[in-house]
Amino acid sequence: MTDVRVGVIGVGNMGAEHAGILHQSVSQATVTTVAGPHAERTRDVAATVGARPTTDSYDLIADPLVDAVVIASPDETHPDLTIAAIQAGKPVLCEKPLALSVAECVRVVLEEQRAGRRLVSLGFMRRFDPAYVALKAELGAGGCGNPLMVRCVHRTVGYDPGANPLRSITASAVHEFDIVPWLLGSAITEVSWHAPRVSAAAGFPDPQLIALHTESGVLAVAEQFQNARYGYEIRCEVVGETGTISIANPRRLVIDSAGTESTGFPADWRGRFADAYRLQLQAWIDAITAGGEPALATAHDGLVAAAVAEAVIASMKGDGRRVAVTAPRLW
Amino acid sequence: MTDVRVGVIGVGNMGAEHAGILHQSVSQATVTTVAGPHAERTRDVAATVGARPTTDSYDLIADPLVDAVVIASPDETHPDLTIAAIQAGKPVLCEKPLALSVAECVRVVLEEQRAGRRLVSLGFMRRFDPAYVALKAELGAGGCGNPLMVRCVHRTVGYDPGANPLRSITASAVHEFDIVPWLLGSAITEVSWHAPRVSAAAGFPDPQLIALHTESGVLAVAEQFQNARYGYEIRCEVVGETGTISIANPRRLVIDSAGTESTGFPADWRGRFADAYRLQLQAWIDAITAGGEPALATAHDGLVAAAVAEAVIASMKGDGRRVAVTAPRLW
Amino acid sequence: MTDVRVGVIGVGNMGAEHAGILHQSVSQATVTTVAGPHAERTRDVAATVGARPTTDSYDLIADPLVDAVVIASPDETHPDLTIAAIQAGKPVLCEKPLALSVAECVRVVLEEQRAGRRLVSLGFMRRFDPAYVALKAELGAGGCGNPLMVRCVHRTVGYDPGANPLRSITASAVHEFDIVPWLLGSAITEVSWHAPRVSAAAGFPDPQLIALHTESGVLAVAEQFQNARYGYEIRCEVVGETGTISIANPRRLVIDSAGTESTGFPADWRGRFADAYRLQLQAWIDAITAGGEPALATAHDGLVAAAVAEAVIASMKGDGRRVAVTAPRLW
Amino acid sequence: MTDVRVGVIGVGNMGAEHAGILHQSVSQATVTTVAGPHAERTRDVAATVGARPTTDSYDLIADPLVDAVVIASPDETHPDLTIAAIQAGKPVLCEKPLALSVAECVRVVLEEQRAGRRLVSLGFMRRFDPAYVALKAELGAGGCGNPLMVRCVHRTVGYDPGANPLRSITASAVHEFDIVPWLLGSAITEVSWHAPRVSAAAGFPDPQLIALHTESGVLAVAEQFQNARYGYEIRCEVVGETGTISIANPRRLVIDSAGTESTGFPADWRGRFADAYRLQLQAWIDAITAGGEPALATAHDGLVAAAVAEAVIASMKGDGRRVAVTAPRLW
């Protein structure tokens, strides 16, 4: 069978990661072209996977040796590049978020509707994490009875100079805005925002705590902590009428030393979600090969998550009041 | 040395527990009198500890063979009985809550002020739980840097016919209203109340989620779940600028069987807090013997916790809005 | 009720610990006399519990203000002091081991037989540890089916100048020789000894691994590690036909910091077995008060454990060959 | 780049697993031919990966559309098929054990020596398990000081009608005989065998306990339990002079329900070692593509493990005496 020829836009951590996974660990995929703004870095990343480097993302999209496009460039470039891929008729996997505003998301969704077929997939990779997948299955099997509450924690080590309270929400907490409805099968309808005092490390209130009410009446609380320092950690517990189901922290070693028993945290999301990224890319390639609908998140999922993010920001600016989520109906 | 002679009011679960612990596991204490409303049950409980039974609590308080009084009768009887003990000039350990309203707490505090010396101790036993004690010590040692957030979970098995959303707050969540300021050394100044839909099991919104803001700028979130079904569980995690500190669930056995590795939960607070109750009673007896100030919570601590409870109830009735805590200044 | 008046022989770590527990945490016990070889240290320990100090252990045993005796002096003094207490007709709780040889244990057992009544209890305190007690109960309830194997680990921090491979067995591993038959209800009939090369830290083979075969056909393997450095740790797993049951390490806090999640180990047995020591002393006092047979280990249990230790030492000297356990039949 | 065309011999659990992984999850591999004894089952497995079915393993080895061979047929067929692949000059990945006797292993090793180049790889897949890899790295980094002891546990659910005590050793415990020297970088020189009574479930002594002494003086103890019933579980703890390092059980969910907190065990090795099998196959394919030496275990590693197995069986038949390991020197 012929491999799917993939072009990867973006040569930062995430772009290099995607290129490497496609090259080394995904069946029936070949990375043919890599695009990035800096010629040298782009050439280096391209060389590791035997691909052609280019500094022009639109050149990559137009490349006849590119069957499908991965977008891992800065967040603000996502909508325009995704639209260009749609217009070129090529399947595209865009890293989350689809865009930083609902309005920009709408542009993408409308463009895909014009194309008349599903071309866009969105990198909400948690949907492919084996622990989240098992959690959803166990929930469906009634493992905790009817869900009443979801407790989410998303902590990163921090020191990100670009971090700010809005970005915490549009680019990080957005994972929770997607995964909670995906787990529960019910949309988020109302939110409120809460926080401790301004943290010295962050320069803004951090952690933030976001309350999410779903259509089905579940209350989810999502902690988003940019400067957790101690390690990268994701928690999710669904609390139901008969019990609870939580995802476990992956761990490889337990070390007894110097008075303690300890296990390590990954430094960032790449260690924690290595399986999820690989399985997501494989599912995307498999769907392209088979000509079917990929099981990845859609552009519309990205729009819905962006609408929740805007409501959360409104609550933040409104001193924590409850704000209804309103997503434009485009379908 | 002569034992302290203790009278125990209340022969329900908690009263029988206190009488048994004092009799079997506390140094320098003898239970001499036990009071309860039902003659037969009272006689049975008294017999297990070799004490005199009575159905009149005020008779017990007046008994010359009683040096000190434990009150473990229904919540609504706490203030009158405590006041009677104060008036008799006897040290009294009253189970939490001190009273179901701030106004009633005020009566007790004023009566003790009139007595001119510390007579009242309040059974916020978590302050004696070895895990909470270790958490406070580790916090003080800077184990997580400056605290930013506290995450509390209080889950009980449920099936309590008298349970209702107000009682969840005044009689159960009140533990958190005491322990959070005790851990942080900072008062709760503002609260808000959140909940999922009405739970079928409870007949009211359950779990409830309570946000507590402290004077020092920490945000605490306390889950209070009356009908958790799966077991009795207490969690507390302090999230700070460099890491987090959590109390661990006590566990004795790990069982590998039928496809799972498992550990058991206690059925209720007696299993979880057996050490705390014993150590609290021993500290109380030791202080009486030594003539010093007991390290137990005070009547004023009970009043402050009641003021937080009233603010939470106001938020609940005000659709989750933020409500400031106002405790009368009596000192 | 009148307190039992206890004399404590030994003012090292263990003696001071017993005196303190009896004084502060045991119901119906008063420490009246404390004996130790060094006058000053003895006076200090005695002062903390309000007791009379003496440098003469036999004077303490004869003291009319002493109803019962605790022996926590060096191991080699145990048999003579225990015999003196028997001859004085006083209940005695002797720290393990009862003696360093089977022959010495025989002397004690015969002396108690001459006295015609149970006077000796032996400090195999694990029998009172809540985790071991729960393990025995779960075993009895069929929690893992018929037991096939027991895996024991006993690790201490080390740095003990008096440590040597024989003492590892007679004074430390002896705990396993008692607890395994107690758990299984079946005697140890054959043993073999195994070890890695000589450890630099110990100067002798350390850890040692001891295989114990029971009359019922179970194979137990006991690791005895004197210089584990990282902390004090006890493990016990019973492997049965349908599953396994293990005791859990007690832990109070979980700390997330500097890239790891960690929990602490106790520094030594006092932290790990604080409950066991307290409950053992309380059970001993209760039995003396009630005039009944204490549930503590007997002199004969000490003799049987010593017989296993001698067989293990014979295997060690016999290059690891299997050696049958032969305890003299004295009853 | 052109895919490596792989022929898979064996359509049992393991063969189907290898074919599926190569097809779905390995980069640059295509399964072209599948061989099995039963035409129908072979056709079904071949169909799932789009390969040609054959009932003749030697026909598969000769197939010009097969570049490399995976052998996952019954253990006793391994040496002849491996030799045939060597003679065909094709790289071969043979499932462990290489053969059921040292003599058979010798035949394979000599045949490969005659071929003059490395063609054989052996499926000791634990070497690719991320936890074992991390354990080896941490050991190398001095994470526990000099190793003194290794504790291995290998438990399977059982119910295998073909299970017997010899097979437990040659086909299951053989994993430990490979992984312990691989972890420590030191050969096993002496062994002894120990067991409880005959287990009702197994009909032979089960679990078995095997002591392994290495050239470097480490004592490893390997429990091999065929009928553990409760689940599939692998443990490995290296005990060193300053601490210990253990691999952690992988776990995805923690469930609080019906009085317990629990996590699940996998049913068998496929769930536990899914990553190891995938990474081993990818490493094998990558080495074939790159023309280099694969990092997988060699035929000689298989011979050495078989020599340990024969020594263990000699100890078993010799009532547990210590037996030296003697592997023929062929290089």
Keywords:
homotetramer, Dihydrodipicolinate Reductase, domain 2, 331 residues, Rossmann fold, 2 domains, alpha/beta, 7-stranded mixed sheet, globular
Topology:
The structure is a homotetramer of 331-residue chains.
Chain A: E1 4-9, H1 13-25, E2 29-35, H2 39-49, E3 52-54, H3 57-62, E4 68-71, H4 78-87, E5 92-94, H5 102-115, E6 120-122, H6 130-140, E7 147-155, H7 165-184, E8 188-194, E9 208-214, E10 219-225, E11 233-240, E12 243-247, E13 253-257, E14 260-264, H8 269-272, H9 274-290, H10 299-317, E15 323-324
Parallel strand pairs in A: 1-2, 1-4, 2-3, 4-5, 5-6, 7-10
Antiparallel strand pairs in A: 7-11, 8-9, 8-15, 9-10, 11-12, 13-14
Helix pairs in contact in A: 1-2, 1-9, 4-5, 5-10, 7-10
Structure description:
- Four copies of one chain form a homotetramer.
- Chain A is an alpha/beta fold.
- Chain A folds into two domains: 4-126 and 274-297, Rossmann fold; 129-268 and 306-324, Dihydrodipicolinate Reductase, domain 2, CATH 3.30.360.10.
- The first copy, chain A, has ten helices and 15 strands.
- Chain A has helices spanning 13-25, 39-49, 57-62, 78-87, 102-115, 130-140, 165-184, 269-272, 274-290, 299-317; strands at residues 4-9, 29-35, 52-54, 68-71, 92-94, 120-122, 147-155, 188-194, 208-214, 219-225, 233-240, 243-247, 253-257, 260-264, 323-324.
- In chain A, the strands form three sheets. Chain A has a seven-stranded mixed beta sheet with strand order 12-11-7-10-9-8-15, covered by helices on one side.
- The longest helix of chain A is centred in the middle third of the chain and has 20 residues, at 165-184.
- Chain A is globular, with a radius of gyration of 20 Å.
- The model of chain A has no long low-confidence stretch (mean pLDDT 95).
- The interface between A and B is large, with 39 and 39 residues.
- β12 of chain A pairs antiparallel with β13 of chain D.
